[in-house]
What we know:
Layout: E1 41-46, H1 61-68, H2 83-86, E2 89-94, H3 102-118, E3 122-127, H4 133-140, E4 146-151, H5 172-178, E5 182-192, H6 200-208, E6 211-214, H7 215-221, H8 223-234, E7 239-244, H9 266-274, E8 281-287, H10 298-316
Parallel strand pairs: 1-2, 1-3, 3-8, 4-5, 4-7, 5-6, 7-8
Helix pairs in contact: 1-10, 3-4, 4-5, 9-10
Amino acid sequence: MSDAFFHPVSGFDLPRFAGVPAFMRLPYVPPGHERFSEVDIGLIGVPWDSGTTNRPGPRHGPRQLRDASTMIRAEHPVSGVRPFEAMNCADLGDVGPNPADIADSMERITEFYARVIGAGIRPLTAGGDHLSSLPILRAVAAGGPVGMVHFDSHTDLYHSYFGGTMYTHGTPFRRAVEEGLLDPKRVVQIGIRGTQYDSEDRDFARSEGIRIIPIEEFHARGPEDVMAEARDIVGDLDTYVSYDIDFVDPTFAPGTGTPEVGGPNSYQALQVVRGLEGVRIVGADMVEVSPPFDPSGGTAFLGVSIMFELLCQMVTGAPD
């Protein structure tokens, strides 16, 4: 059972529109806080989108996601899991990026997460664009490569952009494989779709043993069958989960920079995370929520609902 200090504020005690927003109304316990070392799962914001190549905005994602997360309650409606009672969860704050310097920002992010991992805390991140995942993985996989379940419209496996720019939101997992952070044979990418520049990313995936499940196959087989294969691929070893909100059809999640039509609906967006049951999750992220493209906040609410699903899986699939 978790310490009562780490329980969220209830909507029965303080209206959800009141108070200072923290992720899921949890206590704010940044590095250096006297109770930092007691946290089991830390929710972290990475307000950074310098890897974006078209429509910017995910740097504003963590703030909108925090505000939307005040609607999250204590118990999962299907499994009955009560994550805040099972483990000590807290909002660890934001990593402060350098919006003018990609390399410096990545160093800052990795340094922050290395401190989190060093304290025995598993991170659940709100991005930020998808390049954010690379410096996070540099900390999470410092002890050796991990597997990954990746929900997205795009593979993010391109070599470079604009004649040699190596660090964009379309390249993080190419770099992660090259740096030995990911075991490519334990990586599965689900929901890939949309028009392509060429087949370079898929050719790389094929050469490295990365399993791509395109959206056509996802719809033909259904979430349950697809996730059974995903669990087989990652097995019972350490696994990272990366969830790009553009995995979801833009009808349900318009607030993102690179939407692709033909995706899953909002219920299927939850189903796939429920299909991670038993996976040994050492960290997870929700990225590419871009408030300027959905000021109503509906995309952000879907994003934090997915984060709650991820949190419940992190609690039940906790490493020994």
